[in-house]
Amino acid sequence: MTLAEKTIAYEREELLTGCQAVAQAVRLADVDVIAAYPIRPYTEVMDNLSRIIADGQLDAEYIVADSEHSQFEIVKHASSVGARAFAGSSGTGWMYGFEALVVTATDRLPVLFLVGNRALDDPGAFGVEHNDALAIRDMGWLLCWATTAQEALEHVLIGYRVAEDPRVRMPMALALDGAFLTHSQHMVRVPAAETVRRFLPPFDLGDRRLHPDNPISIAPQVNEDWVMELRRQNWEAARRARRVIEQAYREFNELFGERYGTPFFDEYMTDDAEVVLVGLGTVAMPARTAVRRLREHGHRVGYVNLRWFRPFPGPELRASLARFRAVGVIDRDFAHGSPDDGGVLLHEVRSCLYPLPERPQVLNFLTGLGGRDISIDDVTSMYEQTLAAGRGRALEPAVRWIGVREEAARGVPEERRP
Amino acid sequence: MGFKDKLKEELFPTIWCPGCGIGLIMTQLSLVMDDLGLDEGNTVLVTGIGCTGRMGGYMHFDAVYTLHGRTLPVAEAIKTVRPELKVIVVSGDGDQASIGGNHLLHTIRRNPDITVLCNNNEIYGLTGGQAGPTTPQGTKTVSSPAGTTTTPVNLQGLVNTSPHAFYAKTTVYHQGALRKAIREAIAWPGFAFVDITSQCIENNGRRIGFPSANEMLMHYKREFRPAPPGSSALESHQLGIVRGTPEERAPAGVAAPSGGSPSRGEAGSGEGEE
Questions:
Q1: How far, in Å, CA of B143 to CA of A39, rounded?
Q2: Where do the domains of chain A lie, and which CATH numbers do they carry?
Q3: Was domain B16-247+264-268 assigned CATH 3.40.50.970?
Q4: Residue A411 DSSP code
Q5: pTM of the full predicted structure?
């Protein structure tokens, strides 16, 4: 492709929040049905979409449901009749609709959901934690994090492309860190609609589309006669999705310029790195800054920003991380009572590394919970601890809390209780 | 003791926006509680997610801030275990009529002795002003820039599906009627629902043309009128109380006596005072 052709890939550049970028992507994807129910921080997506529709920029059905459960059921069955469908939520709202989310995957309906990551109440909290989106990880969904508004926009398009592929047909959750991405503004290049149409063909559910001319049953009762085989079909679809994702990024890069080096994760200053940190979402920002500062002092450190969590890029990440002496896994989530009481990402990464004959040391940092800032100093400390582990020092404990007020965590002292 | 003893004034100013109507409800509730001798020893507040739910934190009572939409099962559970307590639910129209709508339907049917004060501002205020279950048709909101297309939930009609229920309609402007409605609702032996029209200037009023919260209150003053005495149902913009027939209650654990369902209508009488 010539440079001249590439210049029409993006039609304009503007300042958008993560939520606004997602709304623009939904417009560009020419979504047919949107169901909404307000909950922070996702709400800005539905507000923007209502304006886009009212302004005549998108011809779509827009339904404000009575709750998330209804919201998710609406888009699921809109998809089953052949509509490209979109919904989104956050935190406990996402969890309230979980019954609908689970069966969307088993019905193999490629709806795209935005998850504005939010802590799971109680106690009331609006800040980011990843446990809401991570809860879907074993249910046959595609799950991916964006770190910038540009990535958020582009991964709505890539997400529909992968989810709707006949080899996949899985629902897709695109996660954005609440506040830090949903509500921070970035300069975003907005793709041209014509180029998006070349990348994302019209939704076609084929012979699985519910229509009077194609009488089929959705979710009939099958019990032990069929469930195991259906689970196997979901498993095969998730396995096939890896190659479909790679193909989607290749074609995205051809149409929109070389946007993405690798599909599943990207690496920052890792070429000669001794140790790396691995994380999901916007922690990449302070991490990259910490990497640059530490390198000014001669420390060979790098950062691996994991984008796709499902399907998990096992072979690719294993090959990458095998190069380092130590890996620090950052979890903006928790998995209470799990091995070593670490976070969800720790277990995925450590399991991924296990087949290696010589494994890097692995540390785990639990941090940024409930929307607490992860500062550059915090990340620098994580690097220092990971460097020490890489040199065989201070290997225990494997799991460390960063940024927690230890005294407050012990609770209110007896003498100060009412 | 005075009504201010019910309030945690040390936490003031509240988190509510300037001009919000919720404080007017909290004040009247405090006054009624003071009159009736309700205190933290005999009363529990149950509040729902939404701006209104914060009221539990501003009052000197044991309070449960429930999951979104779940005030009624929580309140019913408390009343079942501790029947001697007064259980008062305070939450918004979004919490009661939308995500909690199914609970409302079935709590009305079971008729537990609890009181619901519904701050009905016709909008999802906390999340920034999206159309909710009671938003009047045609209203421009942030989720309906061209006007809502759906009809609002008829709360009176819903509550009055039970022959035993108590329904009151008032506004935060009509403070006398509000106080009377709260007082009678708390005294009512069964499910009592007070539907309180209230202003959300920041996330609704200004967008639909009101320059200030005061203008919204003046609008309520102009538009709402007491229902004629003896009304068995309230028309739009009528203030008053519609009472069912109190249910005969068997002791706990004993089946209720059989018999025909009492009819609704003759027991009702419109009320309204300012």
A1: 13
A2: 3-256 (3.40.50.970), 265-410 (3.40.50.920)
A3: yes
A4: -
A5: 0.92
